[in-house]
Amino acid sequence: MRPLLALALASSALLACGGAAPPPATATDAPAKAAPSTTDAKADDAAKKTAALEKLTAGEAKSGTCTDGHKAALEKLLSDLEAAMKTKTSEDGKPLDLDVIGKKVVALGSAPKATEMTVTGRSTELHVLAFGAREVSMDVLVGNTAASTRRSPHTSVAAKTIDVPDVGAVDVQADSRWTEINPGQPLVVKLSGEGCAALVTFRRR
User: Fold this and answer.
1) How far is CA 59 from the centre of its chain?
2) SS3 per residue for 141-157
3) Mind listing the pLDDT tens digit for each residue in 59-97?
4) Strands 168-171 and 113-118
5) What is the Cα–Cα distance from 171 to 160, expressed in whole angstroms?
6) Rounded to an integer, what distance in angstroms lies between the CA atom of residue 181 and that of residue 187?
7) What order of strands is seen across the sheet that includes strand 195-204?
């Protein structure tokens, strides 16, 4: 009993001197969780955008049709490009004199999609440009022969991004060919990719 009596007396003395036991820990004393970093948030947004774009283009490839919003975004890109090309000049300051002879927006799927046209007029210089929200590639044939593999410098005139509904701003992917043919020869363009893509052909006057 003596140790218990001594402990009780010591506690009484402590209280008499104004001392007090520390308050019990509360839930607010728990360490706060660190907020997500800006880098993590950006990476998460990019992953969501990529997933949304893949879902959109996979649906277009399966159905063989472009969604209205995606098609409208690419049609605007082509219209803006056509307007910009009318005022663009060469390094010596002379007009490029390039006219659109064909343009379209198509949905690409598992097999390449071919477009054929016959070029008329005296000029033989052609610039064939393709654009898409996903990677797009092309093969160009003049008659039955592969055309030059030279890339056209005019893809740089087009917008670098397009705004796709339900996805957001997307970087534009492009491919091109710069070739020459004889008037009256058939030109065949085979596009490969997934989802909606835009194709335009310019001919020098």
Assistant:
1) 16
2) EECCEECCCCCCHHHHH
3) 999 999 999 999 999 999 999 999 999 998 888 888 989
4) unpaired
5) 6
6) 8
7) 98-108, 195-204, 125-132, 173-180
Which one-letter amino acid corresponds to residue 94?
K
Q: Rounded to two decimals, what is the model's pTM?
A: 0.78
Separation between Cα atoms, residue 141 and residue 146, nearest integer Å: 4
Q: 41-46 — which CB contacts under 8 Å span 24+ positions?
A: none
By CB atoms closer than 10 A (0-12, 13-18, 19+), residue 16 is exposed
Maximum average pLDDT range among 25-29, 35-39, 194-198:
194-198
Is the pLDDT reported for residue 129 higher than 80?
yes
Domains of the chain (ranges; CATH) run: 44-204 (2.60.120.1300)
Q: What SS3 string covers 27-85?
A: HHHCCCCCCCCHHHHHHHHHHHHHHHHHHHHHHHHHHCCCCHHHHHHHHHHHHHHHHHH
Dig out the tokens for 78 from the structure: 């082509």
